[in-house]
Write a structure and sequence with these properties.
This protein is mostly helical. The chain is built from two helices and no strands.
Length: 43
């Protein structure tokens, strides 16, 4: 199956909210990147 790379741009407020959710849930940087990749491929 072919794969593609996608970049999603967030405005500063959306990024701050996402970072806060990650922080509150205890996600480290590696888990956060994996989560972002999963969200990107779900679109």
């Amino acid at each position: 199956m072919a794969q593609t790379s996608m970049t999603v741009r967030l405005d500063s407020q959306q990024k701050a909210i996402f970072d806060e959710v990650c922080s509150l849930s205890g996600m480290n940087a590696k888990a956060r990147t994996a989560f972002q990749n999963m969200c990107n491929t779900a679109k």
